[in-house]
């Protein structure tokens, strides 16, 4: 966005083949910008919650207007159009930084866009109307674009949430660094050959518009891919996340554990599975109401999640039943972890209105080093041990050989 170069002459353009070529390039660049604007606008209509798309439409709108003004220069509308076109083009390019920052959830810093716009308006107006120096105006414009290009590229340096492929970010950064290099080359050609109808300046102008025509199409395409990745990630999270507790739902947890067990078969790593069930949960719903039941599930999940390692996975399988996957954890360590979790839940204070109550949890523990190789067999055995914990009086952990409960006695399963 904003990659097109300005035109040096504020008056008549010589009737040469090169002038005709530049006129054609201006028209092609404008059409490319208009197509990109329409595409971005329709994408925004379908995803109005994406603020980056809204700012992208604004930036492309400014760019299209600037290119339209550039094309009108050949109709000899006067000396005001170059100043306004340069200003709008710098504004559109500076606004691309706003797009990047909003996309990443950072403060927009839109005041920098306004500052760059006002600075370009003042500088371009001074160089055009007072000094009548086309060369200096081209320098100023090219320098402003060259300054912003790497700054915007840096905004896209970090991976985005739910990124499955870095290609869109690399495409955007490639576009920006290409613009940076083209602007430097244009300033060099201007320095060597001067403004006006010199061969160096014609080459610089033609190259600028050729690159602009290409990049104006690539930049919205790259942004659309980035937004698409994020939307797919959001949909994936909605499909695999329990809305009440914020942890995996059954589908998400089972997909993850199947993936981890496949990895485990390659590495030989021991993994453990814990099945947890809140004791007498129906009694909480019947006594305190379903809102208290939902609060119990949410507080329970938060307490458990806060006690796990980063590598552990936690999911709600349905109702009051939850599951935890402990990678790189032998059976004995899994039993210890389960006991710590049981004790932490016993100390969890809950309230429903003015009434206070506590909960307990029963846990069944299995491991991949002796209880099964696939998820179905591990789940069956963990469910059997969870049932045994319930039958033994609840509020206890049952594993392969040892069961623990509040009094600390043990038993065989």
Q: Could you characterize what this model shows?
A:
- With 413 residues, the chain is an alpha+beta fold.
- The protein has two domains: 17-240, Rhopdopsin 7-helix transmembrane proteins (Up-down Bundle), CATH 1.20.1070; 250-404, Reverse transcriptase/Diguanylate cyclase domain (Alpha-Beta Plaits).
- Helices cover 64% and strands 9% of the residues.
- The protein is built from twelve helices and eight strands.
- The protein has helices at residues 17-46, 51-72, 80-103, 110-130, 134-155, 167-193, 199-240, 250-267, 281-288, 290-305, 331-346, 375-391; strands at 272-278, 313-318, 321-326, 349-352, 355-358, 361-367, 397-398, 403-404.
- It has a six-stranded mixed beta sheet, sandwiched between helices. It has a two-stranded antiparallel ribbon with strand order 4-5.
- Strand 6 (361-367), helix 12 (375-391) and strand 7 (397-398) form a beta-alpha-beta unit.
- Helix 3 packs parallel to helix 5, helix 5 (134-155) packs antiparallel against helix 6 and helix 9 packs across helix 10 (290-305).
- The longest helix is centred in the middle third of the chain and has 42 residues, at 199-240.
- It is elongated, with a radius of gyration of 32 Å.
- The relative contact order is 0.09.
Taken as a percent bin, the fraction of beta residues is 5-15%
Task: Give the CATH topology of the largest domain.
Answer: Rhopdopsin 7-helix transmembrane proteins
Structural class: alpha+beta
What is Rg? 32 Å
- Low-pLDDT segments, ≥5 res: 2-20, 407-413
How much helix is in the residues?
A: 55-70%
Largest sheet: 6 strands, mixed
The helix/strand series, from N terminus to C terminus, equals HHHHHHHHEHHEEHEEEHEE
Number of strands: 8
What's the shape? elongated
Overall pLDDT metric? 84
Number of helices: 12
Can you tell me the CATH architecture of the largest domain? Up-down Bundle
Instruction: State the name of the first-level CATH class of the largest domain.
Output: Mainly Alpha
Strand order of the largest sheet: 2-3-1-6-7-8
Give the tally of structural domains: 2
C-alpha termini separation: 67 Å
């Amino acid at each position: 966005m904003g990659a097109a170069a300005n035109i040096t002459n504020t008056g008549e353009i010589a009737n040469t083949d090169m002038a005709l070529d530049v006129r054609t390039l201006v028209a092609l660049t404008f059409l490319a910008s208009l197509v990109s604007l329409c595409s971005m606008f329709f994408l925004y209509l379908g995803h109005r919650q994406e603020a980056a798309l809204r700012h992208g439409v604004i930036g492309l709108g400014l760019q299209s207007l600037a290119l339209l003004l550039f094309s009108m220069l050949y109709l000899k509308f006067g000396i005001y159009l170059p100043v306004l076109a340069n200003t709008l083009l710098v504004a559109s390019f500076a606004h691309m930084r706003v797009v990047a920052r909003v996309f990443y959830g950072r403060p927009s810093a839109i005041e920098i866009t306004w500052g760059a716009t006002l600075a370009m308006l003042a500088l371009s107006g001074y160089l055009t109307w007072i000094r009548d120096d086309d060369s200096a105006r081209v320098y100023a414009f090219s320098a402003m674009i060259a300054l912003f290009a790497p700054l915007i590229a840096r905004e896209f340096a970090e991976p985005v949430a739910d990124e499955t492929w870095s290609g869109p970010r690399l495409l955007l950064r490639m576009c920006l660094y290409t613009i940076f290099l083209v602007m430097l080359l244009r300033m060099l050609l201007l320095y060597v050959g001067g403004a006006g109808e010199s061969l160096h300046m014609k080459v610089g102008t033609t190259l600028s518009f050729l690159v602009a025509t290409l990049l104006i199409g690539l930049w919205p395409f790259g942004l659309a891919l980035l937004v698409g990745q994020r939307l797919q990630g959001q949909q994936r999270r909605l499909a695999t996340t329990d809305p009440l507790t914020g942890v995996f739902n059954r589908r998400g947890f089972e997909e993850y554990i199947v993936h981890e067990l496949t990895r485990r078969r390659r590495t030989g790593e021991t993994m453990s599975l814990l099945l947890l069930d809140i004791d007498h949960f129906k009694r909480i719903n019947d006594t305190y109401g379903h809102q208290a039941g939902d609060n119990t599930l949410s507080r329970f999940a938060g307490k458990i999640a806060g006690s796990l390692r980063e590598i552990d996975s936690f999911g709600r399988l349905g109702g009051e039943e939850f599951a935890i996957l402990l990678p790189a954890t032998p059976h004995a360590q899994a039993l210890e972890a389960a006991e710590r979790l049981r004790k932490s839940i016993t100390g969890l204070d809950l309230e429903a209105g003015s009434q206070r109550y506590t909960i307990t949890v029963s846990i069944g523990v299995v491991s991949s080093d002796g209880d099964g190789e696939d998820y179905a067999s591990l789940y069956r055995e963990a469910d059997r041990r969870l049932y045994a914990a319930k039958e033994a009086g609840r509020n206890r952990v049952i594993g392969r050989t040892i069961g623990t409960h509040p009094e600390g006695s043990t038993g065989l399963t």
